[in-house]
Design goal:
By secondary structure, the protein is mainly α. It contains four helices and two strands; from the N terminus they run βααααβ.
């Protein structure tokens, strides 16, 4: 998920061009995401806030780029989030912040990973192809 290296600097501050460009993703909610399991790995029910967070995470537009391992990572992050909501401990909040950064949850995180949301492209109307009879008089 994350791009290797440091955060991109402003164009005027770099000594050389970046070796990788931006990943453009259409800004439409992702609909093919995994569902949150019915229960946590320890058998307990998920906190309601964790369910809301999962709905937000699983519909992020850049989830279209995710592989099964990325979804497993997100499920583990959901367990960390659930522990934070259950206990309220700051250690879980700090840990969750790091997990969310890797998943590029915020605009700043997406910028750091060079993920750019773009407006959806309008659908292209089909073009009527001409047949050979249209060119016989040439």
């Amino acid at each position: 998920m994350p791009v290797r290296g440091r955060k991109p600097k402003a164009e005027t501050l770099t000594r050389r061009r970046s070796t990788h460009g931006w990943t453009e993703v259409e800004n439409v909610p992702f609909t093919g995401g995994r569902r949150l399991p019915k229960a946590r790995p320890d058998g307990q029910q998920w906190n309601q806030r964790t369910r809301q967070k999962w709905r937000a995470w699983s519909t992020m537009p850049h989830c279209v780029l995710w592989h099964p391992s990325d979804w497993e990572f997100a499920l583990t992050a959901a367990v960390v989030a659930d522990e934070f909501y259950r206990t309220g401990k700051a250690t879980y909040a700090a840990e969750l912040r790091h997990w969310e950064r890797v998943m590029a949850v915020t605009m700043d995180d997406r910028r750091s990973q060079r993920i750019l949301y773009i407006d959806p492209r309008p659908p292209v109307a089909p073009v009527q192809l001409r047949g050979p009879e249209d060119f016989r008089d040439l």
